[in-house]
Write a structure and sequence with these properties.
CATH class of the domain at 132-266: Mainly Beta
Structural class: mainly beta
Largest sheet: 4 strands, antiparallel
Strand content: 35-45%
Number of helices: 4
CATH topology of the domain at 132-266: Neuraminidase
Length: about 270
């Protein structure tokens, strides 16, 4: 319908309360209810309304699928309902995809020359930006994401680092890391940023890590933090409940990091 009402027959307040409880995975089905509803979803204002009335945000996961023509498409899944929905297509620029990270309600897709941002609130891709580096470490925590290291425009291993704030859709450069590295991994833990392993400018595997403390605004090298680091792949690590887990590729075992002793213990 072309009605200006969100839901024909209901007042604006009542309609907003109903729509606030509609899972994101179901919205595509209701896009044709009215133009007003479609415009509301695309504006991103519905998510702000949901928070104001205390509706808990669903948990989401995004996957990238290869299409028959050699391109890719993204799909989202609501982990609470099990429902899948397609993300709108983004312009295919032929850029090589090497990583993605979720922060707040935004999905960052990193390529060699482009950085794409999908906004969950408005169900739209923002205009592509230039990534700080390629083959860099990346991680996220709540409403911030970071990148560090990687390969710069001249093809050298980088010491650059930057943090992205999803609430303002803006980047800010951090102090450089102490050591240049590429093909490294990154995590956020205990309110700090960690860059682990990677490859040096000379092509040798790096076993050290670095910790960035926002309070001190400086990086600290942690020697032998990833003793199994290999030159052909970034360390396989993740954080759960502020505990760092990894896959020791030499022993093929799942390990947990002991912060006080800077050692790993098999699980």
């Amino acid at each position: 319908t072309s009605s200006s009402e969100l839901i024909p027959g209901l007042g604006h307040q009542e309609a907003m309360l109903c729509l606030a409880r509609l899972p994101r995975s179901e919205r595509l089905v209701f896009y044709t209810v009215s133009k007003a509803f479609y415009q509301l979803v695309r504006s991103g204002k519905l998510e702000s309304w949901r928070r104001s009335v205390g509706v808990v945000m669903e948990r989401h996961c995004f996957v990238c699928l290869t299409t028959p023509g050699g391109g890719c498409c993204w799909k989202g899944v609501c982990l609470d309902t099990g429902k899948w929905w397609p993300l709108p297509p983004r312009a295919q620029d032929g850029d090589e995809l090497f990583g993605s990270v979720m922060t707040g309600t935004q999905l960052l897709v990193l390529g060699r020359h482009s950085l794409w941002t999908y906004c969950l609130r408005s169900d739209k891709w923002l205009a592509p930006a230039t990534p700080p580096a390629y083959e860099c470490a990346f991680g996220s925590s709540e409403h911030t994401a970071f990148v560090a290291g990687g390969i710069d425009e001249q093809g050298f291993a980088s010491t650059a680092a930057a943090v992205y704030t999803s609430t303002t859709s803006s980047w800010k450069f951090l102090p450089d890391t102490n050591k240049a590295r590429r093909s490294c991994s990154g995590v956020c833990m205990d309110g700090k940023i960690y860059v682990l392993g990677g490859v040096s400018q000379t092509g040798l595997p790096m076993y050290c890590g670095e910790e960035f403390d926002p309070a001190l605004k400086s990086w600290t090298v942690i020697d032998n933090m990833v003793p199994w680091s290999e030159h052909h792949m970034r360390p396989l690590v993740t954080v759960l409940d502020n505990e760092l887990f990894g896959l020791n590729t030499r022993t093929k075992s799942l390990v947990i990091y002991c912060k006080r002793s800077n050692t790993w213990k098999a699980i």
